[in-house]
Queue: 4 jobs
Job 1
Amino acid sequence: MYMPLIHNLRDFLEILQREQQLLIIDTPVDPHLEIAEIHRRVIARGGPALLFSNVRGSSFPVVTNLFGSKHRLELAFGSRPLDFVHNLVALLESMMPPSWDTLRQAYPLIGQGLRIGLKNTRHAPVLECSQHPARLTELPLLTSWHSDGGAFVTLPLVYTEHPKDNRHNLGMYRIQRYDDQTTGVHWQIHKGGGYHYHEAEKLGQALPMTLFIGGPPALMLAAIAPLPEDIPELMLASLLQGTKLSMAPDPLGGHRLVAEAEFAVKGIVPPGVRRPEGPFGDHYGYNSLQHEYPVFQTTHLYHRKKAIYPATVVGRPRQEDYFIGDFLQDLLSPLFPLVMKGVRQLKTFGETGFHCLAAARVANRYPREAFAAGLRILGEGQLSLTKFLIITDGEIDVADFATLWTHVLERIQWDQDLFVFANVSQDTLDYTGPSVNKGSKAMLMGLGREKQRDLPRQFSGSLPRDCTRPLPFLPGTLVVEGCPYEQNPELADQITKHRDLVGWPVIVLVDSTDGATASMQEF
């Protein structure tokens, strides 16, 4: 199917409208809580993208749910970038030793590769209007939850350059508006923009920063993609777009501008300055708390004529970021075996917020090679933020969690296949540890062809006191409803010793059996 090139947000909205994937809402709506609630109800029903044309307190319309379905992602990008990556990997695997045949196979990819990159342009729609100084309160930033600490840019495209070598980073780090000229920047310690600021702060320098909002759909996805630190996000944006990304100089100097962005906010992040940022209802489904973060001091703002403000709403999965994450996994997963030898398949589960749970199928050619492969995964870029990693060498699809879990439980040897790593660096959004960025993670392995046990599938017998409503949900996995921890702190220990439960490899203690087993996603 022919896929037209999409150079900006307007191109994409035209396609969505033509495909009846865009609902235009002319009724006045409020960016404080109301837009977010409408968005949540629509995405829960598998509904379309939403263009709010009459936003209280702002002259700019708001569009949300741009990528909230697999179909809309296909409309945005088609199969072109996925085909390119698959063909590139296949070529690299076949080029050793090189031959004329393999070199001839490279010609089409070389042609596509020449279309990847940046190009300068004198025509930059983003420069059509300007504000000196910036007036951020005119932008329709969303407040998504009652507990949020303020209004946030929820699709921020934060551009910085390394203070020493000018390597760039484009990341999606949430932005909390304080007033017309200042915002908080939620730079996490494990992310590229945070590295740039750390280096600038060591030098006693302010870090120049450009906040883009809107633009080509490819730009938005490139900012989210978990790329290795040295791979430039703007190149990925060009690959996704299918053509070179247009850049224009800022008349006032500094970073070049993405020509087709809807908004570009310029400024600096000074060293040593912090302000409270948050709380914010994040993609794990609970609040990330208020902490001290760097401050973005704006100098000026550019925007297109009749600019459109894109936003998203995050919360308990599945939300819009679930579909984006799955698309990026499909795009990048063929590269994993190239950069992580021995890893044959890797899946992070969007139902858990991606970082919480991952699974891998690996080679286990010598005893415990799988363990080394697991450590390799936990040491790779943003995969290092994984909370729980499941490893197998079985010929199964690890993306099928029910099959994976059953296969692993049939083979795990608990005394040697479960590893807990304490006192390690963790995701800033992980609040299960003793303090921010500190905590633990685990790796579970189920290896070999031979099963170690047959798994129970039905429960009969008694339960400990304070336990009710046992329900086998998956083979070998029993869900049990229990009393609050304060009422019986020893309940978990009592369960492990109860005679009628010793045959179950995994027992999940919950406060609602019905809620925990309503679906695989709820589990």
Note: The chain has a mean pLDDT of 90.
Job 2
Amino acid sequence: MTPSTQQSEVILSINPANGQVAGQVEKNSERQVERAIDLANQAHIEGTWRKMLPHERAATMRRIAAYLLEDKERLALLQMRENGKPILECLRIVDNAANAWVYYAAVLETLETEVTPPRGNYLSHTILEPFGIVAAITPWNSPLMIESYKIAPALAAGNCVLLKPSEETPQTSLELLKFAKLAGLPDHTLQVIQGTGAEVGPKLINDDRVQMITFTGGTATGRTIAKAAAERLVPCTLELGGKSPQIVFADADLDLAVDGVVKGICGAAGQSCTAGSRLLIESRIYDDFLGKLKYEMSLVRVGAPHLETTQMGPLASFKHRDRVAALVDLAREEGATVELGGFSPQGELSSGAYYAPTLLTGLSNNSRTWNEEIFGPVLCVRSFDDIEDLMRDANCGSYGLAAGIWTREFQKAWDVGRAIDAGTIWINTYEQSSLSTPFGGFKQSGIGREKAAQCLRTYSQIKSFYWGMNT
């Protein structure tokens, strides 16, 4: 795509820790998006990438991982300046991104197709074929990692990928593209489209040559993408919002539970789809646990993301910080008591998009604040008396992404975990993650699953062969 030199065609990336410009990239026009699709389609038809043997594609993917790790510190700083995550977390994100390329290279080399049971004098078996062009649309909260979680299996399957990163965090995608080229990925097999969803999204999701869409982000946008995919009868995977409950029973290890609840809402400043943003405490320990929790949340070190002592940095943008603040104000109107936080820190943090860890009680289970995803360090708390009471509050609302259960009783954990409408259940831990375990949600938290070996099949089409034995 030919870059534009007009100022109006530039996307500025703003450092949320201080409001300064972190970088800029050139925005793509609709005509340039059309050209990118043309080039991807040509690359797919020529088939240089998809015709490579699995071990050859895998070798390229491992080289991409090596480049990521070689430049780990610079990539971590780049992401830190774009979305404000603490530097130690950004370093882990680069590791996770590299791991995705290594993992799917291994899956690709060991993937087996099937020889199916015949019902006649023939041999039948299956192979996997790529869709062709995959549009991958990614969010701003962990860009390099989520981009890799989508692109690595899509490329492993032999597809060409058009990546549309968030306009809030556009720079890491260009670094990933650079490393892919250095690693030997054929031209136009991976391309990056820069622009807002409103500007470039419609062309990506409505072009008939784009044969699959994968999206991580808000539920409203996910619904729009699902409608477009349904209209063209192409598959899509959607990883959307969440309002995940953490459940603390009286028999739990309360110190362990407090630590898990704090990390579940303050990690990434609550800007994670799986953030444990609802808390349900068994009534007979409610006051004691709430007191412990309030104290531990007050100790969370909010500060500049470049400091290794910082536990929670700013929110990813000033616009998003203002949205979180507005939802806390709404909670007050809905009758919530602000037990802790509920404000933007001043002093040396006043120039950034910071928001204090916030603890809300007194909300009804039909309030907007209890049910709406805030995507910030805001924890809504209720108590429960029995399992029926618990399940009513845990399962209410439109989301079903994850849940955490804290108890020493195995049977209780199993029964409650089975009853919760969520795609991931953590027991006596929270937000542990494994590339080898599928991830996705129930209800309006998404469609399909990411991660795990099965993800390579997600980006593939099954083709069946029958070989006659009579000749």
Note: The radius of gyration is 23 Å.
Job 3
Amino acid sequence: MRAWRETFAGLVMMGLCTGALAQSKSSRWSGWRGGRRDGKSRDTGLLKRWPNGGPERLWHVRGLGAGFSSPAIAYDTVYITGGVDGKLVIFAYDLSGRPRWKKEHGETWTRNYPGARATPTLSKGKLYLLSGPGKLVCYDAKSGRRVWSTEMSSFGGSPGGWGYSESVLVASKYVFVVPGGENCMVALDKQTGKVLWQSSGNGGKPHYGSSIVAVLNKVPMIVGSSRNGLFAVRPQDGRVLWTNDFSAGNTANCPTPAYSDGHVFWANGYGKGGVCLRLRATNGKVTAREAWRTRDMVCHHGGYVIHEGYIYGNNSGGWACLDLKTGERMWSDRGVGKGSVCYADGMLYLFAEDRGRVGLAEASPGGLRMSGQFSVEGRDKSWAHPVVVGGRLYLRYADNLYCYDVRR
């Protein structure tokens, strides 16, 4: 068992948790919030200040349909999803914005805030996608050919009021997904879709966040969320390691938890705020104790990143920085307004949820110092997250996908 833990942990620490891609780390973004699901790009040599009007736009495509999913980039291809005429469609473009292929996944979500939700997950030549109604499909990433599929209803799951929104986690040989309820989390064989285990997790109905891998003292864990709050399970068998009910019963738990230096941070919207858990791992057993709670980061959809011991994230109508260990608020600022965030090369890329405002700021506990702003066209709400990879900034706003050159 110890050997298994160390092997799995080694894969994660090598950056293989969501796809051992045959590309340089700087040219791939293998799914939701990147390969490590931390919202942090490994790019360097990027602009520290934008010219008036923003960086150079390389290309722009329209016609994605309705949706809130973010792009995933690998194999010299940009993957994005959208709701078109009641169908969920996967679009694949080359790095110049020219179409490679598109594929209908099935029915899209048509109720509250209709359209695409989850971001595709890429791993070893495959693409994995969960739809709002609950269909999970594995595709060949090069051609769009369907490999296998399953339904969340087969595990007793049913979507919440805003549909399944999880970007499924792929780690080692597993696909981890949260149908919710009695079989709160399920692990599937990523090659065949075969069920490997089913776990009660914390027994909650599905909400709208995605899971992460955390490794502490060579002990790996899958940290997931539901309507009942946070939970962690062993990846090999789904045995529950710990739970936390801080955000249980909240209207909607949307953000993905963040892990750094033995701490798990999770903040949600609707006035809830955040909680930071201090983890301890001994002999394969893990405990999670609340270190602090805060109302200084009330985060609806936009998420947060942890860099050098500080949390930077959306706080109600603006932005805030908190000390990871203590929860002390370092600053709070309006910035571009409520939105989503990505980190790259010492900078924060901020994308407002309305009017297409985009901002660049230094990631510093000393304050939010803006060094460039511009706007993109779109309509209604934008809950997609910005992506910085390969020297480019990708922005999805409604049925538009934009690509900018942000290299120095």
Note: DSSP finds one helix and 32 strands in the chain.
Job 4
Amino acid sequence: MKLNNSFIQSLAILVMLAELPQGTALKSQEISQRMDVSPTYLLKIAKKLKDAGLINSSASKNGGYTIKKDIRTISFLEVFEAVEENDTFLDKLDLNPIHNMFLSEKIVHEQELVVKNILLAAETEYKQTLAQHFVDEIAPKDASGKTLEINWKQIISEK
């Protein structure tokens, strides 16, 4: 389990879509252009966000992506689980060095269990922290505390 660029890019996509004026959608090429990422890579991320029920996708002349859920209700954990691998801290972990540290099999198994328990506790805390924070926390706000409305279509077309 680790954070990849797709997690940060997903947060950026969600904030961009939340800032759009009502009834406005962004096409994948517009988002990828603004974020300076490959259109193919962006499509993969957007599909994961759509499959997780975080964004809508509409294929039409005026279609594109829109936010589906209020960003005040989308936790960092929800985004993480949507776009990152579902490996745990213990997946792909080679514990064989512990076997070489001790001569007694009993001690090996005891210490291996200690390591596993520490890592499982760390993973639980990690996910609990992500669950306590929401996308809204990183969205720019106006003086009244509302998410800024930004016409990304216009900004992107002026580039």
Note: Residues 55 and 67 are 4 Å apart (CA to CA).
